[in-house]
Amino acid sequence: MRWQIPLLIVLIGGVFMAVQYFVPLEFSERIYEYCVDWVIIVGVFAMGLGLWSLFRVSVGKIQTKAQGWGYNFITLGGLFGMILLGLFSGIEEGKQFMNLFWYIYTPIQSSMFALLAFYVASAAYRAFRARTLVSTILLLTAVVIMLRLIPLGPVSGLNQTVASWILTVPNMAAKRAIAMGIGLGGIATALKVVLGIERSYMGKE
Amino acid sequence: MSGDIIGIWIGAILTLGIFSFLYKDNPFYKFSEALFVGISAGYWFVVTFWQYFVPKFWDNLSLSFHELVANGRIDYHWIYLVGGFFGVLMLLRLVPKIGWLSRWSLAFIVGTTAGLQFTRYLESNGIRQVVGTIKPLVVGGNLGTSIGNIIIVVGTFTGLIYFFFSKEHKGAFGGAARVGVWFLMINFGAMFGYTVMSRMSLLIGRMDYLFSDWLKLIK
Questions:
Q1: Which residue from B minimizes the CA distance to A147?
Q2: Cα–Cα distance list, B90 to A90, B13, B103, B109, B167 (Å)
């Protein structure tokens, strides 16, 4: 029961989803749509589980007075504030829920990503010392691509041409090789999962 | 002070809070970070609830219920209870004695996703890439396209050789793998360039917010 039924569900679900692609009948398409909807519904329940986990971790830190425990009040306040506002007053534009999104969520998120600009710059300084052929290739490509959108006077046209050629020819070749590698790996993993060879997702007893 | 102005002030203060990490980890940054964790978790839960759970689960079951009450008919929307059933099983993870039942819903998600990805990978990452790589190596009257096509074929082939680890990278095979690395470096360089530019663009956006929307120093 504990191990066989999940393996059976994986086998049936996996084989059906793979086979339905080759059977474009209304019946199979309808079941496919149901399956996709069910996955989404389960995902929402799983999200609830995630929120419960966040709540427990935060409360646990407060109870044990772990280092920086006071910040967990802020996390819980933000969490419950958003949930209460979103569930009871709606999520339409102009509601308090969306105001919190625009004035708190968006600025912090964009600032966090923008912060990476500084760290990328310092990483680039260390990585871009052209000591070997491969690092020189990396450096030159990155420089050409970075300067692509910047006006460079008379060399702008040439830089645009070179950047466009790099993107559509050698870069495309490498992207294809990577995509094929990912594809083969994905297919192998999917087969292992469906056939029950890969079972790590079930955890341990 | 209107609501917008208060909002802009809050956004600006939180932006400075995040940027204060450039100096060092500090309470101002930690406050912004903790707030972000709570707000984002709540935001995505609520959005998922209204945009997916309500239309896909609640509305469908309400339709079925009304149909049953009004006409005494059992319609096909009840089938959405299956999703709810697996969802409830997922929550049983919180009950240690029967927590193993949550594996059923996990198995459902993993199985259907694996089956779906199998054909997707086969088509988009396999067949389409191979078809895109099979190009004429000599295009009459167009030297540039011919050279470009040869480079694409060589680059894809040698790149794949680099990812083949079942044979030691020595001799001609190792040489081909080395050429593959050069192509991969071009790809990584391009990706790095794009990443830097996108981060710079976000940074400019934040500076614009601070100096234009908040401080009104830039008109």
A1: B193
A2: 27, 40, 7, 11, 44
Contacts with A81 from chain B: Cβ below 8 Å: 38-39, 42
Structural domain boundaries of chain B?
135-219
Confirm if B189 and A140 have CB atoms less than 8 A apart.
Answer: yes
For chain B (219 residues), the mean pLDDT of every run of 10, in chain order, is 88 97 96 97 97 96 93 90 96 93 95 94 94 91 93 96 93 96 96 91 95 92
pTM of the model: 0.88
Pull the structure tokens for residue B26. 């500090």
**Residue B109 CA: distances (Å) to CA of A9, A23, A184, B79, B199:** 9, 21, 21, 17, 34
With CA atoms as reference, report the closest residue to B183 among B151, B209, B211. Answer: B151
- The residue type at B140: G
Q: Which two tokens stand for residue A138?
A: 């990396």
Nearest C-alpha neighbor of B110 from the set A48, A204, A25, A203: A203
Sorted by sequence, the CB contacts under 8 Å of residue A127 that are 6+ apart come out as A135, A138
Residue in the block written with tokens 């990443």: B195
Positive or negative torsion for Cα B139, B146, B191, B176: positive
Partner B contacted by A94 (CB < 8 A): no
Contacting residues for A149 by C-beta, under 8 A, at least 6 apart? B197
- Per-residue pLDDT at A205: 61
pLDDT digits (tens, 9 = 90+) for A120-137: 888 877 777 767 899 889
B48-84: b or e for each residue (b if 16 or more CB lie within 10 Å)?
A: bbbebbeebbeebbeebeebeeeeeeeeebebbbbbb
CA atoms B195, B197, B200, B206: torsion sign: negative
Using only C-alpha atoms, chain A has a radius of gyration, in whole angstroms, of 25
Q: Which residues does chain B have within 8 Å of residue A146's beta carbon, measured at their own beta carbons?
A: 193, 196-197
